[in-house]
Amino acid sequence: MARTALFGGSFNPIHFGHLLLADDVREQLDLDRVVFMPAGVPPHKPAGDIAPAADRYAMVKLAIADNPAFDVSDLEIRRAGPSYTVDTLAALGVAPSELFLLIGSETFLDLLTWRDPRGVAARCRLVVVPRTGSAFDRESEPSRKVVREIGLEIEDVLVVHATSLPISASDLRVRAAEGRSLRYRVPPAVAAYIAERGLYGARG
Hints:
This protein has helices spanning 16-28, 53-63, 75-78, 85-92, 105-109, 117-122, 141-149, 169-177, 188-197, and strands at 4-9, 33-38, 70-72, 99-104, 125-129, 158-159. It is α/β, with parallel strands linked by helices.
């Protein structure tokens, strides 16, 4: 069975930081593929700031078109209501030993607020990707508390220090609204799509 990583997020919009991180993690963990999973209705984000799900899916598809190890799923977009990771993992049907969930270090420390965090941990291998410059410590008491509550041992949580770029999706949305360049921040096809669709207030 293919070793698969699930990379979820709003991807609002997807940018080179997302792509570089995914490629670095894929290489370090010797993964066969990385599946990008745009959230339909992200439960932790204000709805007013988010482009339509179909547009975010389309931008991811454009961004990964030239990488055979990358794939995109519309599973969460097709499912009604908020997007809960535990439901997505169950629906993928991949053995837990072959399925890896990529999450940031801040997200990992917030994992107990998720729906059924134990169910999440039982369905995949957790891969924590600390933000560059982050002081994340897997051995710290906050980390150990999360691990205890979700029924794992500290060694079960993988930590991957992947390359990240200082690109912010919120900054990209502001730049688009102000008519400023997105070049070198998002793939050209994504920049063109944002302009053509007038996303984030962009003027085509």
